[in-house]
Design brief:
Layout (H helix, E strand, L loop, with lengths): L5 E6 L10 E2 L2 E4 L3 E2 L12 H6 L9 E5 H9 L13 E4 L11 E4 L2 E8 L5 H5 L3 H5 E3 L5 E3 L3 E7 L1 E3 L5 E4 L12
Parallel strand pairs: 5-6
Antiparallel strand pairs: 1-2, 1-6, 3-4, 3-12, 5-11, 7-8, 7-13, 8-11, 9-10
Pfam family, one: MOSC
Protein name: MOSC domain-containing protein
């Protein structure tokens, strides 16, 4: 981790759209998510998961994505800007994918507890052909690697905005790697 971990953009959309427009700030509500976002709620709001079991707890209240991913995608010829892949919070300077389950991120007054990895879907290829294979692939051991950010729940309400620093509080050991939620 670096001393410069920060938020570079925040996003929300009341519609279940693929991309989310940038906002000046977003309000996080404990146990529910991003106020005004389509995924706000105590129970799961992702449409395919609602169809499967609408009573599931919402472990995907906030989606965070690292801007370093966009840099790597640009090197591969893709053009992706913050918010275009549907994240609520775009970060820089923090290795989100390497953090363990239960990590608490303090941003402004808000606290987000990480629950798992985003599982990218076909909509990513609809956005830009070939992008899904760049964001999800199998490593040399046959394990699926997911690069499309992390998901979390809001553990303390607060407002966050671009420029906010990100504090990291790791859970007690043993640490468990993030898996898809």
């Amino acid at each position: 981790m670096t001393d410069t971990a920060r938020v570079i953009a925040v996003h929300a959309s009341a519609a279940h759209s693929f991309s989310k427009p940038q906002a000046d700030g977003i309000e996080l509500h404990e146990g529910r998510g991003v106020v005004g976002d389509a995924h706000y709620g105590v129970t799961v709001q992702h449409r395919s998961r609602v169809r499967a079991d609408p009573s599931q707890p919402n472990l995907r209240q906030v989606h965070l994505m690292h801007a370093e991913l966009f840099d790597g995608l640009a090197d591969d010829g893709f053009r992706v800007s913050p918010g275009q892949l549907g994240e609520n919070v775009t970060t820089r300077g923090i290795p989100l994918l390497e953090l363990p389950v239960g990590t608490r991120l303090t941003i402004g007054d808000a606290v987000i507890t990480l629950t798992g990895l985003r599982n990218p879907c076909q909509q990513i290829n609809d956005f830009q052909g070939g992008l899904l294979k760049r964001l999800t692939y199998k490593d040399d051991d046959g394990e699926v690697v997911r690069l499309a950010g992390v998901m979390g729940i809001v553990s303390r309400s607060g407002r966050i905005q671009a420029g906010d620093t990100i504090g990291v509080d790791l859970p007690a050991e043993p640490h468990f790697r993030l898996t898809r939620v």
